[in-house]
Amino acid sequence: MTFESLFLVLSQVFLKRGLMKISPNGFNIHFFLQLFKNYSLWISFLFICLATVIWIYVLKHFKFNVSYPLISISYIFSLFAAYFIFDEKITIYSVLGVLLIIAGVFTITFRGNLH
What we know:
- It is built from six helices and no strands.
- The protein is mainly alpha-helical.
- 75% of the residues lie in helices and 0% in strands.
- Helix 1 (2-20) packs antiparallel against helix 3 (39-61), helix 1 (2-20) packs parallel to helix 5 (73-84) and helix 5 (73-84) runs antiparallel to helix 6.
């Protein structure tokens, strides 16, 4: 499940990096050519495909009411990505929010078994 969340965040990181390289010319042929030539967008697509394959496995083998909230782990990864990759400022509210998510995931995961 952690890999699924990590791959989701990596897909969004590469999506953002790819979109930052595209000029905002609207929806014309030049825009779409930039999309297809952008390797970051293709890497983003690869990571979202990997996350989907893992998610299919998780849904097949684990309880939905436990599995779905575990996607929230991606918020933890996204906080680190925002800070280390995009140089975004992390506020105390962001940290508190992630800590609450960790507490929630811990509570859901350990209240019973995952199967």
